[in-house]
Amino acid sequence: MPISTLPSAREFEEKDHAEVEFVGFRYIGDESTKVDRDIRQRVGYNGPPKFQVGRVYLALLPTYLDANHVENNNIGVHALESRSDFEVIYDPERLAEALLDQNYLPPEAFYEGFDRWTRQKVMEKLDLDDVGRVFEKDDEEPYRDQLRAIAGVETDDEASVSTQRSDEYTSRFSRSEASEIIAVLREAQASEPPFDPGAHTIAELEEELETDADEKWDVDSLNALYQAERLGDDRTGARNVLEDVLGDDLEPVDFEIDLESAGLTDMTDYLTRYDPAVVEEAADVVNGDAEISDLTATPDTEE
Length: 303
Hints:
This protein has 14 helices and 6 strands. The protein has helices at residues 7-14, 38-43, 77-81, 92-102, 107-110, 116-126, 141-151, 157-172, 175-189, 202-209, 219-230, 238-246, 264-271, 276-286, and strands at 3-4, 18-27, 33-35, 50-52, 56-65, 86-89. The longest helix is centred in the middle third of the chain and has 16 residues, at 157-172. The two termini are 20 Å apart. 28% of the residues are buried.
């Protein structure tokens, strides 16, 4: 997950009209994914407006803007703090833990060609010793060791093996290939819908659902349709139709990763939850060398 900021934030700070801090924030609301464009307008976050519940997003955000020099001085971290569905993370320990959990050091702060201003903000906030820019994966370790010390995380063999597998998948698969493999694993876990959701258009679905409350489709069938839509087997929009009808009765299948917004590192980390042989078989299915009906895909780890 890259570190987001607005170019104007740096300009204002350079003129002593603002104070900018490296922070994290996460969505803690009731939805699995939250689309919120106000975050960009009111907070100064420059990343995509789609937020997965629980995931930490990193940013350089204004903590103070001089009202005498900045017209829109209401933007910044306090706009996030005023929201009950978002949590702001200032603590260096939790920020270090978030970087380790994502298994991704933002290039703009650590790698060759880093942005000096961004790097300085991150290094100062986390009190990291400068051990040089990162050129290869192995060069990350001095920084990872420091982050583990800050977060109070001990290195263990299992985590090391998981990191090695994630790195291997990152070097082997493109983002689209990893996405296809995860989609195959999801499909292999999905229960068979009691009807063919792909046979219905949205108009037909809406017509079926526009009935009296006691004539609604049964919850199991609707959840199967919801699951099929999540797997890409149904028309776009079915999810909204079902949610409107079922409301709190809907029990969506949570696969804990959004393939539209997740990066390659997120996907390869997700693949390490499965037995290596299962991932290889799913890759064979994607390449046309195996049938999905022969694939048994159950994660071998729990988060």
